[in-house]
Write a structure and sequence with these properties.
Layout (H helix, E strand, L loop, with lengths): L1 E2 L15 H13 L4 E4 L2 E2 L8 H17 L5 E4 L2 E3 L20 E5 L9 H10 L3 E5 L5 H5 L2 H8 L3 E5 H4 L5 H13 L4 E3 L10 H12 L3 H15 L20 H13 L2
Parallel strand pairs: 1-2, 2-4, 3-5, 5-6, 6-7, 7-8, 8-9
């Protein structure tokens, strides 16, 4: 697996507090079968003013510490850019490419999209970039109207869901939204968004759940093949029927409702 969204790089955002936290998370990921991991600390002007140079310097230190612990995961530079109405046009997105590819990981306000969000995303696409919107299932606009996810895809925006959203970590409404997106094929990547706040690794938990209840196509596509295309700077197909999940035996909706009952019952 390849995890394209994490906050494991220590000291520089709300993720890992120190090198010990980071190494613990890397060991957990490696034991779960992750081979490559993008380190994507926040870029929020005035709060987390992280630069590519700073991130790469910290990655170098973490890589050295990981080697001493016999951790062989490939650590890749990335960043999660926060988009707001006032700041969007001031951001030089070219500085925040993932692994020097054309892909850029972005997020925005959970409580409501800025009015110029689509304009900012359009400008990125026009400039030759490939925006990936992080955790779309957590935005109130998409929770209220799932069709916005499809509209974003038709505007050449990729969508990255959080593994924890499938597992109820953000509440039942987020969970129902992400499963609906999954069943419609509206997701291009699944990542952990790991913040080093738990000893569990949501990407591995979800991988097991999907492999038990679906064919191998969703896991391979969303956790392996599509993330690998970022590393090779290759385009990911926007609408691909192969990512439609097909249950091995039971009906998809019955699984979905069972999961919701488990989550709602604590």
């Amino acid at each position: 697996m390849i995890d394209i969204h994490t906050h494991i790089l220590p000291y520089i955002d709300d993720g890992a507090e120190d090198i010990e936290d980071a190494l613990k998370a890397l060991k957990l990921a490696q034991d779960s079968g992750v081979t490559d991991i993008f380190l994507t600390p926040h870029y929020m002007p005035g709060e987390y003013d992280n630069t590519k140079t700073l991130i790469r310097g910290e990655i170098k230190l973490l890589r050295e510490a990981a080697l001493e612990e016999s951790i062989g995961i490939n650590l890749i530079s990335g960043i999660e850019v926060y988009l707001t109405q006032m700041r969007g046009k001031m951001i030089d997105f070219d500085k925040f490419r993932m692994a020097d590819s054309d892909y850029v990981l972005v997020e925005t306000a959970m409580h409501g999209f800025p009015i110029n969000l689509f304009d900012m995303l359009y400008q990125m696409v026009k400039d030759g970039l490939r925006p990936i919107l992080a955790h779309p299932e957590r935005y109130i606009d998409i929770m209220k109207n799932i069709n916005i996810a499809e509209e974003l895809i038709h505007r050449n925006v990729y969508l990255q869901a959080n593994a924890g959203s499938f597992l109820g970590e953000y509440g039942s409404l987020v969970t129902s939204t992400v499963w609906e997106m999954f069943h419609h094929g509206y997701i291009h990547f699944i990542a952990s968004d790991h913040h080093c706040r738990t000893d569990s690794y949501s990407l591995a938990t979800l991988e097991n759940l999907l492999r038990e209840n679906y064919t191998d196509v969703p896991v391979k596509k969303l956790m392996c093949d599509n993330p690998a295309r970022i590393l090779r700077n290759e385009p990911v197909e926007f609408l691909n029927p192969e990512i439609q999940p097909i249950r091995k035996d039971r009906d998809t909706e019955s699984l979905f409702h069972r999961l919701l009952r488990i989550i709602n019952n604590g």
